[in-house]
């Protein structure tokens, strides 16, 4: 089934949602909660180890049914079919989008251009397992016959953010290999990352889908030169492996063909951590945990594929996000995990969400007349409470926020976890209810504040509340639940792309800067600044005059 190109603003649901918005824009969540004691019962989804309570949103049953109608009129059901069955839904690059196949069972029989890709997927998985087992148990050694102690992942964007985020997130399950990540072409970052490493016991994993990315190739080159200061050319195969679709370029770089872990053009960079791009994850936590991550993601895939849309976590979260983005005019969304382990989740999802849905041309090739991709940002709680929560509580912008928390801590520290989770619940309650004038006045009485001082302070101390949040309460942070969580957001991205009628799986917008950087690099090398806009010329000349290296 092909994906249809439907302008969302032309649907009946959109028009009805616009009318409905006029009734809802000033609706009070506090009043809706007061009027309906069973609101959470109505607006939550419980699935496996996940409880998603979305009752703290500015919605009623009509809102939800109109949003579901929008999904239905946008052809979401057939789009989901196309997504999972390998249709070339990435039309501008004429590719299928099949990261879901990487976590499917071998028997799934997923086809690309009539060829079942599962045997290849499992061959690479077996290669990952064999390789990681050898490095972890020390049977595969470095050039001086010592076991490996460190792994350095060299990649950028999707070839860095996913593995870096997961390695951090699963730190509790880590073995004794230390994994570092080099991404930025900033040479200082490279040198800092190499500090203290012993070339005899360090494995380098070069990850680049295209193997043409300037940052990764420069960094790999520099790291190889650093390695060759201690080792010989013939030692390179023992210490350098690569993950790429571009086998020719990898071999040209000098990496042994046996050390190449292939991937496929039907896996987008920002959705690739499930492929061999996740090699450093598997090295850090062992293949069993890597496989657990894939299993958790596959479970979420099944949920997304089969659950009715009103009980479908990615669908409901995507629709709520459309409600705020396209009707309330919300400019951004925040993501606040109440665990330090997920400190890199927001930066990881920034690529997933913003590179996918930051588009302004619809699937018919016309400029869109409505808002698309949301801006996503966030930091773990409770740190973020002491940083930017002021703006979410009392600023002028509406910032729908996802709160992600876990019932069980990993080290079992009850005192800390009770405190952490009391903050988790308190924040969504505060964002919902705010603090009324009457409550503030009552506090003043208790504190003995009265007269002019009380009158002056009153408006500053009132919180309007009515700020929307979703609460994702998950039993425990494991490889499986993490896999499900990441897949949830991947599918949310997909649903929103379908509704906004855009192509979510290309990224032409990052190309122009890359092209210009290449020609500016020539000018920096030659010292001969060519014609640019006046500002760029001015800056380049200033830089060239001052630089001393
Ligand atoms: O930033 C653009 C981009 O193409 C991303 O989509 C991708 O994840 C990243 O560059 C790295 O690309 P590669 O894996 O080919 O080096």
TrEMBL record:
Ribonucleoprotein as a keyword of this entry, yes or no, is no
Q: Where is the active site?
A: 355 (proton donor), 386, 514
Enzyme class comes to isomerase
Superkingdom per UniProt: Bacteria
Catalyzes what? alpha-D-glucose 6-phosphate = beta-D-fructose 6-phosphate
Q: In which pathway does it act?
A: Carbohydrate degradation; glycolysis; D-glyceraldehyde 3-phosphate and glycerone phosphate from D-glucose: step 2/4; Carbohydrate biosynthesis; gluconeogenesis
The record's annotation in Pfam families points to:
PGI (PF00342)
Which UniProt keyword terms apply here?
A: Cytoplasm, Gluconeogenesis, Glycolysis, Isomerase
Say yes or no: keyword Isomerase present.
yes
* MF GO annotations: glucose-6-phosphate isomerase activity
Which residue stretches, if any, does this entry annotate as coiled coil? none
Q: Recorded E.C. number(s)?
A: 5.3.1.9
Where does the protein end up?
Cytoplasm
Tell me the HAMAP family matching this sequence: G6P_isomerase
Function per UniProt: Catalyzes the reversible isomerization of glucose-6-phosphate to fructose-6-phosphate.
Q: Which family does it belong to?
A: Belongs to the GPI family.
Instruction: Please report the name of this protein according to its UniProt entry.
Output: Glucose-6-phosphate isomerase
């Amino acid at each position: 089934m092909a994906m249809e190109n439907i302008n969302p603003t032309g649907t009946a649901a959109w028009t009805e949602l616009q009318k409905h918005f006029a009734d809802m824009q000033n609706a009070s969540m506090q009043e809706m909660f007061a009027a309906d004691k069973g609101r959470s019962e109505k607006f939550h989804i419980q699935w496996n180890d996940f409880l998603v309570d979305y009752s703290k949103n500015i919605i009623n049953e009509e809102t939800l049914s109109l949003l579901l109608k929008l999904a239905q009129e946008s052809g979401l059901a057939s789009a989901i079919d196309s997504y999972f069955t390998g249709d070339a839904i990435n039309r501008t690059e004429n590719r299928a989008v099949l990261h879901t196949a990487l976590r499917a069972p071998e028997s799934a029989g997923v086809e690309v251009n009539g060829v079942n890709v599962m045997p290849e997927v499992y061959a690479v998985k077996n290669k990952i397992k064999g390789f990681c087992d050898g490095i972890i148990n020390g049977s595969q050694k470095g050039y001086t016959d010592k076991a490996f102690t460190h792994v350095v992942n060299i990649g950028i964007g999707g070839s860095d953010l996913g593995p870096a985020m997961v390695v951090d997130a699963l730190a509790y399950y880590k073995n004794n290999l230390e994994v570092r990540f080099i991404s930025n072409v900033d040479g200082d970052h490279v040198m800092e990352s190499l500090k203290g490493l012993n070339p005899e016991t360090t494995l380098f994993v070069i990850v680049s889908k295209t193997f043409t990315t300037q940052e990764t190739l420069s960094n790999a080159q520099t790291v190889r030169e650093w390695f060759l200061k201690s080792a010989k050319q013939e030692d390179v195969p023992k210490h350098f492996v690569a993950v790429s679709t571009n086998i020719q370029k990898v071999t040209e770089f000098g990496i042994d063909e046996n050390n190449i872990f292939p991937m496929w053009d039907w896996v987008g960079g920002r959705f690739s951590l499930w492929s061999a791009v996740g090699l450093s994850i598997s090295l850090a936590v062992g293949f069993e945990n890597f496989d657990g991550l894939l299993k958790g993601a596959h479970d979420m895939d099944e949920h997304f594929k089969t659950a009715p849309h009103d009980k479908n976590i990615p669908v409901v979260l995507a629709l709520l996000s459309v409600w705020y983005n396209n009707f309330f005019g919300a400019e951004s969304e925040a993501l606040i995990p109440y665990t330090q382990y997920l400190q890199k989740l927001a930066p990881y999802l920034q690529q997933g969400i913003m590179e996918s849905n930051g588009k302004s041309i619809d699937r018919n090739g016309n400029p869109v007349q409505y808002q698309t991709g949301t801006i996503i940002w966030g930091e773990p709680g409770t740190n973020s409470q002491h940083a930017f929560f002021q703006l979410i509580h009392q600023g002028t912008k509406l910032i729908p926020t996802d709160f992600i928390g876990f019932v069980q801590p990993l080290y079992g520290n009850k005192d800390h976890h009770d405190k952490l989770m009391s903050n988790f619940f308190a924040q969504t309650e505060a964002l919902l209810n705010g603090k009324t004038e009457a409550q503030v006045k009552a506090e003043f009485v208790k504190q003995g504040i009265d007269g002019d001082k009380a009158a002056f302070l009153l408006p500053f101390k009132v919180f309007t509340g009515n700020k929307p949040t979703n609460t994702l309460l998950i039993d425990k942070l494991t490889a499986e639940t993490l896999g499900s969580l990441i897949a949830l957001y991947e599918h949310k991205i997909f649903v929103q792309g379908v509704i906004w009628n855009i192509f979510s799986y290309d990224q032409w917008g990052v190309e122009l800067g890359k092209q210009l950087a290449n020609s500016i690099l020539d000018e920096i090398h030659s010292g001969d600044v060519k014609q640019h806009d006046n500002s760029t010329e001015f800056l380049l000349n200033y830089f060239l005059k001052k630089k001393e290296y």
